[in-house]
Design a protein that fits this description.
- The chain has 6 helices and no strands.
- It is an all-alpha fold and 177 residues long.
């Protein structure tokens, strides 16, 4: 009995260690993904600035928003870290960015949206917009389902009325009326 108890305690300890190792591994993977994403984004931003390509800069800024939204789904803290590092780069290169953006209001607004708020505010703003989009999609689905249900009920009522009319006509025929 003592040997069985010792084995079961040992096996529980191994499962705990395995779970802890899996948690550490997933954290390391997320961190590596964030670091890779930051490096790739900064590389793109550097290219945009060196080429003085405001349209490409605008595309890169849009990709940043998409990456943050993607990271939010798996780990909001990673999204905050990502945006913080991108903000730091954009702030370090603010003069180059301003020189490139010039009078382009759309790109200036995109840069401001990323750099002017705290990373947590950027993430929560994106979470809010994702939540709003999900709510709108849910409402649209409910409306469509209600419309389909109403159409089905109307069709069933029409068929029932047709059946009643047909039965009444058969009854009248049978009675000779």
């Amino acid at each position: 009995m003592m040997a069985v108890a010792a084995i079961s305690f040992t096996s529980c300890g191994n499962k705990t260690q395995q779970a802890e190792a899996a948690a550490v591994d997933s954290t390391a993977i997320i961190q590596a993904n964030v670091d890779q994403a930051v490096e790739a984004t900064i590389e793109d931003l550097n290219e945009d600035l060196q080429e003085s390509n405001v349209n490409k800069l605008q595309e890169t800024l849009e990709q940043i928003k998409q990456k943050v939204a993607e990271l939010i789904k798996s780990n909001p803290e990673a999204a905050q870290e990502y945006i913080a590092k991108i903000q730091a780069f954009l702030k370090e290169n603010a003069d180059k960015v301003k020189g490139l953006v010039g009078d382009n209001a759309a790109v200036a607004a995109a840069v401001s949206a990323i750099t002017d708020a705290e990373p947590a505010a950027v993430v929560s703003g994106l979470l809010q917009s994702v939540g709003d989009a999900a709510t709108e999609a849910k409402d649209a689905a409910v409306d469509a389902a209600n419309e389909a249900k109403d159409a089905a009920v109307d069709a069933a009522k029409e068929k029932a009325n047709e059946a009643v009319d047909a039965a009444a006509n058969k009854t009248k025929e049978a009675l000779g009326i």
